[in-house]
Amino acid sequence: MVILATNGRFYTVGGDRLPGGRGHGEPLRLMVDLPEGHDVADMFVHRPGARRLVASDAGRGFQVDEADVIAQTRGGRQVLNLGSGEEAVAAAMVEEGADTVAAIGQNGRLLLFPLAEVPVMARGRGVILQRHAKGGLADIKTFVAADGLTWRTGRGVTTFTDLADWQGRRAQAGRKAPRGFPRNNRFG
After folding, report:
1. Average pLDDT for residues 64-77, to the nearest whole number?
2. What are the structural domains of the chain?
């Protein structure tokens, strides 16, 4: 299991170290050296050969191969360099065949832009994915534009195919999300 913390570090926990199905569990902070004041931003099961899109709340990010985020120590591996006051928010899976990135801000503005505009890096601060006048980046997702953008709601999965109004170039602000998009500004 790979964990992205809000400090931009990735931590690796082997499946054999996870507590069994009985008992009261064990705090994650006992398995990795997660500093006080930082929380888990995202977690996923490692898939060899896969790629992730990592981003900070300042709207900066890049693509990284999952092999480059595996940490060998409890202290983790610094991958996403953050500026003062920034936090990591997401490590979205780059879906097979994906050609578009969807970025939604805390202000509810959605921007769709080509995945080719986001560089592949092993470590760094990244490029500006979406600009924000107020707030920051809330969530990111990659998808195949021909299939449409999907998100989860309390009623199930919604697919939106009329994407033209939200398409743009990387580092733009975007437009208000379509009607029916979750109020928490997350793709689910």
Report:
1. 95
2. 2-176 (2.120.10.90)
